[in-house]
Write a structure and sequence with these properties.
Elements: H1 40-50, E1 54-56, H2 77-88, E2 90-95, E3 98-103, E4 107-109, H3 144-158, E5 163-167, H4 168-171, H5 179-183, E6 189-194, E7 197-203, E8 211-215, E9 218-219, E10 240-246, E11 260-266, E12 276-286, E13 298-309, E14 315-335, E15 338-341, E16 347-348, E17 358-360, E18 362-386, E19 389-413, E20 417-418, E21 424-427, E22 430-455, E23 460-484, E24 493-496, E25 503-506, H6 509-512, E26 519-543, E27 551-576, E28 588-589, E29 604-605, H7 607-616, E30 621-623, H8 625-634, E31 637-653, E32 657-678, E33 681-705, E34 708-719, H9 723-727, E35 730-734, E36 738-742, E37 751-764, E38 769-793, E39 796-820, E40 833-849, E41 855-858, E42 867-877, E43 880-889, E44 892-895, E45 905-907, E46 910-920, E47 925-932, E48 939-943, E49 949-955, E50 959-967
Length: 968
């Protein structure tokens, strides 16, 4: 089969960027096919080259070498298709930007063709885009997984630079709970998990802070108060028509980011030619519900409704809604740090001293109850009164509320070691801790944007947009109560580290389990509120920037972004009184539960009873006013940033080859408002900084043949400093002989990178199969790190700790991708199998400046595995569809310590297997079943000199879902 099999799903493909007449009818779309063209295939390719249309047909049914005759007066696509239909006995039917061809009585059907002089003419039949049974373009039942792959391959083929896309149906192929989950299936994209779900993404293993994330080209505000990385966890997949991942500079990209660009293209009421209602309802169960206090089912509901109205349906309205509630527990076994000893049993400073035998410093058991509630709304009003003009007003709101209770039980090593062997020994003293944290977190992203596009009669395209984006992260009543025993021989124990999870045996377990032995250390209540607002304005002009255009084209764009981030921190700290101390026994919860990897039951605090005690007996609590006030004041800040960018790009097309040259100007002005502490004196300080860069880029797209494309690109990019490096609290301690300063550095410069790419793509059985190979290299300089420097000036000793520019990272890699929608070489029903797979192999080098002045050279970058890959196997037969997806991420270092290298930590290799089944009851109703994390994989964090010692094991279990999707 040559093209998009089946014309599936309610959502047709959205417009190709920079195409002139977006979803215009064939009657309104101008085209010129020279009358001397004598073959059908050549005429079809000419239409594809000049318009946004793509033809779908079965190769065995359509003879591309068939002779044709074209009229000299043909001025529109309809004129040409009518001639081809009559001459070749063909039928043409347009849906979205796809035109299906099949043999039959000559006919051209387009629901949007309008003839004023034939107002009473019967309306041509409209095709409902629901697969797989509506339109069968192949002798075998096709499936939506193959359709989605074909759409993505078409967009990749047409892109000017290195870009990957995931179309709407592809996003829903597997149990992807948010867009970050979906993005991990893109070649070169790696997701950063927060327990069981993806939260951030990185491109080619460059840290997520260097990624530019947008919705319809408008920046997404960041929720994290201290960093720039954008949290994608709360954005639902049903809000998105497609995801675009850009790895090299392209038109419409407003920020030359070191990592690249991820653009979320929202759905449109013009995605289909008919009114649409889609409702998905699913019930789920997480099998990680062993922790007492929180059990139940989980729910997912999605609804999308669209309506076209007005003269010639020129207006469209879309509303999308999502509700998701997840009920699950989490169990962590943690061996948080290690100590080393000499043969006498006394602690030494580092593993290079003493006998070299590691001993766990403390054992931790974290158990969480968590209910996550997400709500999403998308509203869009769009108008397309003319093929050359469109305007759209979009608003969105995505929120997530985590209602989490965190219970913790610790056992600390506080004594000397005796009877030590390489894996066993006895600890003379220990300390135990019981802790509870009420951890409610509210996060939200919301915004609005207005876009307009106009194409002049001489093909100059004008785009303008204004947008507002906001993010919130609020920790309200984040209360933590911490109780501990004294360091005592009553908690002496023997340990055995012969396995990754160390075992221990208490000599007096009754003491460890007695609630009255745990006395309140601290009770604190935190209020943390981070708010970010981004205001954006854009103006873009382009002329002949599509691959099919010959000769010169150009693109000009200017963008203004104004960012305001406000962070408020309030802390109330209490101790217990020595005369009548509070213990766990005062608010003990006797619920019996044994956590993983230990034999003794857990000790739970009844936090509701503790709160009642706090209210009823305030005399047993001592408020620490000074510390509370100082911490509350020093952590507050306001950050403002004005970013101006302008890009000029020229393109020259030579038929098969397209050359792009561009220069982007970026000017950045920042202003920080925070507080400075000098001994006991406080003052507000305001610091300003500005910098500018001109960033050149060049790229080449060359069609070696219609099926074989080469791409090459080189570009320069920047990464802006993290907010935490600019605004960290300033503390200055002075005496007559010394000054000690700890501060942020508002004068930091951006990190700079040079990127180089070379890629080859081969399409066979287009657009149903593709293989691609890509090579890339990045050199990042001026990365930011925190350093401490000491010097003497005028007899005074200075010690200054602050972030500075200076480190570098070198990264290069190989990307492989293979897609084949039908494995036709397999026998019988197996030929309906399809496969999609990609892999990324990386090698890096990072220079780490240690606080003692030395350098460490790592053979990898931060958060960079040696390789990661994902693949899916899909099958469609009759009414059944199934897909099995697998994702693997290799081990990577997530933290580098600049004092003690053995305190680095890494995430071990992680893989996940997901399954989805679909059964089509009718053209309006589909059943779905999903299993997420089929193999019950766990996340493992490692640390130590060789990153082989256990830090923690995170178990979050599997989830099972069943439900139905209704279309109308």
């Amino acid at each position: 089969m040559k093209s998009i099999a089946g014309l599936l799903s309610l959502i047709a493909v959205a417009h190709v960027p920079f195409a002139g007449a977006l979803y215009a009818s064939v009657c309104d779309t101008p085209v010129y096919v020279p009358p001397e063209y004598e073959r059908l295939g050549k005429a079809l390719r000419e239409i594809e080259a000049q318009t946004h249309y793509h033809f779908s047909y079965v190769e065995e049914e359509i003879d591309l070498d068939a002779p044709i005759e074209l009229p000299a007066h043909a001025a529109t696509v309809a004129d040409v298709l009518e001639a081809l239909a009559e001459f070749g006995q063909l039928q043409f039917k347009r849906i979205g930007n796809q035109i299906a061809i099949r043999p039959g009585a000559p006919e051209v059907i387009d629901p949007e063709c309008y003839h004023p002089d034939q107002a009473a003419a019967p309306e041509p039949p409209k095709l409902r885009l629901r697969a797989p049974s509506v339109i069968e373009l192949a002798p075998f039942p096709v499936n939506s997984f193959a359709y989605a792959n074909a759409v993505s391959m078409q967009r990749k083929h047409q892109a000017l630079g290195l870009m990957e896309t995931i179309s709407a149906d592809e996003i829903g192929q597997l149990p992807d709970l948010n867009v970050a989950d979906a993005l991990k299936r893109v070649p070169g994209v790696m997701s950063i998990l927060d327990e069981d779900e993806s939260r951030y993404v990185s491109i080619r293993a460059v840290q997520p802070d260097y990624l530019n994330a947008t919705i319809d080209g408008i920046p997404i505000a960041a929720q994290d108060y201290s960093r720039r990385r954008v949290n994608l966890e709360a954005i639902p997949t049903n809000a998105v028509l497609r995801l675009e991942v850009t790895k090299s500079v392209q038109p419409d990209q407003t920020d030359a980011s070191i990592s690249g660009n991820v653009n979320l293209v929202t759905r449109s009421p013009f995605d289909t030619d008919l009114p649409q209602l889609s409702i998905l309802g699913m019930g789920g169960y997480f099998d990680s519900q062993a922790v007492p206090g929180n059990t139940g089912l989980s729910w997912r509901t999605e609804m999308t409704v669209t309506e076209r109205f007005g003269p010639r349906d020129m207006f469209g309205l879309l509303y999308g809604f999502t509700y998701y509630q997840k009920v699950r527990d989490e169990e962590k076994t943690n061996q948080n740090s290690y100590r080393w000893y000499n043969d006498g049993g006394f602690r030494v400073e580092n593993p290079d001293q003493g006998n070299g035998y590691p001993v766990t410093h403390h054992y931790d058991w974290f158990v969480y109850n968590n209910t996550v509630t997400r709500r999403g709304h998308l509203l869009k009003l769009e108008s397309r009164p003319h093929p050359n003009f469109e305007a759209k007003l979009t608003g969105y709101y995505f929120s997530q509320f985590d209602d989490e209770d965190r219970f913790v039980h610790h056992l600390y090593n506080r004594g000397t070691v005796s009877e030590q062997t390489p894996t066993t020994g006895r600890i003379a003293e220990g300390e135990a801790v019981v802790q509870f944290t009420d951890y409610p977190i509210f996060r939200a992203n919301y915004g609005t944007s207005l876009h307009a596009r106009y194409t002049t009669p001489f093909d100059l395209e004008i785009r303008t947009a204004v947008g507002y984006s906001a993010a919130e992260e609020n920790f309200t009543d984040n209360d933590t109560a911490r109780f501990s025993t004294p360091s005592t021989t009553q908690l002496a124990y023997r340990y055995d580290m012969s396995h990754q999870i160390a075992r221990y045996e208490l000599e007096h377990p009754d003491y460890f389990l007695e609630p009255a032995n745990y006395q309140l250390d601290t009770f604190e209540s935190l209020q943390r509120d981070s708010d970010e607002d981004i205001y954006t304005g854009q103006l873009k002009l382009s002329y002949h920037m599509e691959p099919q255009h010959r000769g010169w084209g150009f693109y000009l764009g200017v963008t203004r972004e104004k960012t305001h981030r406000d962070y408020a921190y309030d802390r109330d700290l209490y101790y217990t009184t020595s005369s009548n101390p509070v213990t766990v026994a005062d608010a003990y919860d006797p619920t019996y539960y044994v956590p993983p990897n230990r034999d003794e039951p857990f000790i739970f605090l009844d936090f509701a009873a503790f709160q009642q005690l706090f209210a009823a007996e305030p005399e047993r609590f001592q408020y620490i006013a000074g510390t509370s006030a100082i911490d509350s004041l020093l952590n507050d800040f306001v950050y403002e940033e004005d970013l101006d960018t302008g890009i000029a790009m020229a393109r020259y097309g030579l038929g098969r080859a397209s050359f792009l040259l561009s220069a982007q100007y970026e000017g950045n002005t920042t202003e920080v408002f925070n507080f400075k502490r000098s001994n006991s004196r406080f003052e507000q300080v305001v610091t300003r900084n500005d910098y500018s860069r001109v960033l050149p880029a060049a790229s080449l797209r060359y069609e070696i043949s219609p099926h074989f494309i080469m791409r090459a690109a080189v570009s320069q990019a920047v990464g802006h400093p993290q907010i935490e490096d600019l605004v960290v609290q300033q503390i200055e301690q002075t005496s007559s002989s010394s000054v000690t300063i700890s501060r942020g550095n508002p004068e930091l410069e951006p990190s700079e990178a040079v990127n180089a790419d070379l890629a080859f793509e081969y399409y066979f059985d287009r657009p149903n199969a593709m293989v691609s190979v890509g090579f890339f290299q990045k050199q990042i300089d001026g990365e930011i790190y925190i350093t401490t420097r000491s010097f003497t000036e005028n007899g005074i000793d200075y010690t200054i700790t602050e972030p500075v520019n200076g480190e570098s990272t070198h990264l290069y890699g190989l990307e492989l991708s293979y897609v084949q929608n039908r494995l036709t070489f397999l026998p019988g029903p197996l030929a309906h199998l399809g496969v999609s797979a990609n892999a990324t192999f990386l090698h890096g080098q990072m220079t780490v400046n240690m606080n003692d002045g030395s350098e460490r050279i790592l053979d990898h970058a931060l958060e960079q595995p040696d390789y990661f890959w994902n693949g899916s196997l899909f099958y469609g037969l009759g009414r059944w569809e199934a897909q099995l997806g697998y994702t693997y991420t290799g081990k990577y270092r997530a933290y580098v310590d600049r004092d003690q290298y053995w305190h680095d930590y890494s995430w071990d290799a992680f893989d996940q297997l997901d399954l989805q089944l679909r059964y089509e009851i009718s053209s309006h109703l589909e059943l779905r079943a999903e299993v997420r994390n089929v193999t019950n994989s766990k996340k493992v964090r490692l640390r130590g000199p060789n990153q082989e010692l256990l830090h923690e094991i995170v178990a979050f279990g599997r989830s099972f879902w069943i439900g139905a999707n209704y279309y109308y």
